[in-house]
Amino acid sequence: MRSAEVTPEGDRIRWVELPGRDGLPARVYLHGLGATSPAYFADVATRAPLAGHRSLLLDLLGHGLSDRPDSFSYSLEAHADAVAGALRTAGVADAQVVAHSMGGSVAVVLAARHPDLVSRLVLVDANLDPLEPEHGALGSRGIAAYGEEEFLAGGLEEVREQAGEHWWSTMRLAGGRALHRSAVELVRGSRPTMRELLLGLRIPRTFLYPEADGPVRGAGRLVDAGVAVVAVPDCGHNVMLDNPEGFVRATAAALAREA
After folding, report:
1. How many CB atoms lie within 10 A of CB 254?
2. Contact yes or no for 242/236 (Cβ under 8 A)
3. Could you read off the pLDDT of 145-167 as tens digits, one per residue?
4. Residue 48: what are its φ and ψ, rounded to 5°?
5. Alpha-carbon span 72 to 24, nearest angstrom
6. From CA 34, how far away is CA 64, in angstroms rounded?
7. What DSSP element (H or E) covers 218?
8. Distances (CA, A) of 231 to 44, 146, 225
9. DSSP state of 64
10. Residue 97 pairs with which residues in a beta bridge?
11. Does residue 107 contact residue 99 with C-beta atoms inside 8 Å?
């Protein structure tokens, strides 16, 4: 496990690093809300043909192995800047970033704010648009419907019942305030929105989504802007866990596509 200070207060982002062959670009894997990258990506990152690159399975502040500062805003911009600090400390530039769900939102903002750090993006069913909080909804919308103190006083336990055993196994590693603020900021979105930022990037970009979910909203505009939109069969939102082989094939193809 490795780490880097990423805030003035000395809070640290931590990651599991897989060694790779010299001369190959580094890869950075970013998890979604309430998740942790080693649990979600260790299996697929070590499978051929993805294996062999230096790979950082990085946990966002507030999640997994990383610190959980109460003073941090957990906005998408703040998350992106913290990741940028960790990558600079690790000596990583021009990375291939593979990012799931909320991690995909952070990755888009990272690429827009720190273009020297990102050479291509693979977004895995990522959030591209602001949402409306909704009590009872699963995921970020449901968490964001609580006030912060309300969430800490009992909302987290209610969410636990909805999340189910699998998601809770990693969600319980996140700080309560971090989880809530991250959800609130994800629902609010970036300014400009993640979709607008993604459309404006000039690097190879791929958006993977579960085939069963049907067409991606705004897919035509994404394709017109050079974003490859690729369906992965036999999976739900957690593509890399539900269909590892399909995820590896699609991700490897995305990382190999021409600009």
Report:
1. 22
2. yes
3. 999 999 999 999 999 999 999 99
4. -65, 140
5. 34
6. 8
7. none
8. 18, 33, 18
9. T
10. 28, 121
11. yes
Tell whether the torsion through CA atoms of 13, 194, 159 and 168 is positive or negative: negative
Q: Which is nearest to 58 in space by CA: 95, 125, 20, 3? A: 3
Beta strands 27-30 and 95-100: pairing type?
Answer: parallel
Strand partners, 180: none
Predicted confidence band of residue 207 (pLDDT cuts 50, 70, 90): very high
The verdict on pTM exceeding 0.85 is yes
Partnered with residue 36 across adjacent β-strands are none
Q: State the DSSP H helix or E strand holding residue 84, giving kind and residue range, or none if neither.
A: helix 76-89
Per residue in 118-127, pLDDT tens? 999 999 999 9
- 206 near 257, Cβ under 8 Å? yes
Question: What is the number of residues in the chain?
Answer: 259
Q: What's the one-letter identity of residue 189? A: G
pLDDT at 259: 63
Beta strands in 131-172 (DSSP E): none
